[in-house]
């Protein structure tokens, strides 16, 4: 297999990841009965963007390099925001120190 063929496979793999993000989003929306963007959409976006960026760098294509670099930062930022939101939700669910019940007390105030 030639190097050029290998790079074409890399490029098409990146495009396949981009296609998967739309497929995942569409199937999730159909299942929910409304438009949704699942977290998997952002992971497929990141994978596809990173792979296509590597391909663009190999091809020395400044248009795709700038576009994919920008996209990768946006995908990472969305994943960071999702992580922060989930961590906040988890901490909201955990009992705070002021609401914890002391297991040694009888609970009757005595």
List the helices and strands and how they pair.
Layout: H1 3-32, H2 39-59, H3 62-93
Helix pairs in contact: 1-2, 2-3
Task: Provide structural commentary.
There is one protein chain. The protein is elongated, with a radius of gyration of 23 Å. The protein is mainly α and 110 residues long. The relative contact order is 0.10. It contains three helices and no strands. It has one domain (12-90).
Quaternary structure state of the chains depicted = single chain
Supply Rg: 23 Å
Overall spatial form:
elongated
Q: Could you tell me the number of beta strands?
A: 0
The number of helical elements comes to 3
User: How many angstroms separate the termini?
Assistant: 81 Å
Largest sheet: none
What is the helix/strand order? Answer: HHH
Share in β-strands: under 5%
User: What structural class do you assign from the helix and strand content?
Assistant: mainly alpha
Short description:
The chain has about 110 residues and is mainly α. The chain is built from three helices and no strands.
Key phrases:
disordered C terminus, 110 residues, mainly alpha
């Amino acid at each position: 297999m030639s190097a050029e063929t290998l790079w074409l496979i890399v490029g098409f793999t990146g495009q396949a990841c981009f296609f998967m993000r739309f497929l995942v989003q569409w199937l999730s929306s159909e299942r929910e009965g409304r438009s949704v963007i699942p977290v998997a959409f952002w992971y497929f976006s990141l994978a596809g963007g990173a792979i296509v960026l590597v391909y663009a760098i190999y091809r020395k294509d400044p248009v795709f390099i700038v576009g994919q670099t920008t996209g990768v930062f946006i995908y990472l930022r969305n994943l960071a925001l999702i992580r922060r939101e989930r961590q906040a939700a988890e901490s909201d669910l955990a009992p705070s120190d002021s609401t914890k019940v002391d297991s040694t007390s009888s609970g009757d105030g005595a």
